[in-house]
Amino acid sequence: MCNLYSNTTASEAMRQLFMVDASRDHLGNAQPRPGIHPKGTAPVVALNDDGNCELVEMSWGFRTPKVSKRTGKPIKPAAWNNARDDKLMKSGLWKASFLARRCLVPATSFNETKGQRPATDYWFALAGEGEDRPPFAIAGLWRRENEDLLEPEHPRRVHTMVTTEANDLVRPIHAKGRMPVILRPYDYETWLTGSHDEALALIKPFLAAEMRIVLQGVGVKSDGGAEGDA
Known about the structure:
The strands form 3 sheets. Strands 3, 4, 7, 8, 11, 12, 13 and 14 form an 8-stranded mixed sheet that branches. 38% of the residues are buried. A hairpin with a 6-residue loop joins strand 5 and strand 6. By secondary structure, this protein is mainly β. It is built from 4 helices and 16 strands. The protein has one domain: SOS response associated peptidase-like (hypothetical protein yedk fold, Alpha-Beta Complex).
């Protein structure tokens, strides 16, 4: 399960990577996001009504109502920020979005923790040449959320990221052996527009040899690009 990721890529670089025309970049003066948490906002690449890619702000996590076990009264809704690959066609929470509203979640690293009291944070990134944190895309889903489940400042659209079995680099860190689905650039269009069978075929662990741990330490809840131990 991924509960924290970063995206420090500049808007112009995201437009180039995801082939988004400047007229369809709705991020405004987007700032680097060294630590994106559930219910936080983040850039997402999705198709508009005309079938063109656009960059938009979404809030991380599909919301569902929640009530207090003690009082039975509504409390803050749950945010489902990960969609398991084996539940995409079975769960009512994910199926409609998987079939019709797939998206790309731009990222530069993601966080997993190991141990307890204290837990150690590990930040994973791609092992690119010449770039400290090469940008990449995580397979995602989105939907328009019920306003009653959102804070007033949150955008109506929410996103989640698809997870699969962890590779050999992530597995020793993640207790349940899961990791986000990282897509290769030549698969972006298929994820966004392909059939559900074509999209399912893209869901697999990213090669461990093409990734690295770039930052680790206790309480390291953001990744602004500096490498090493905290």
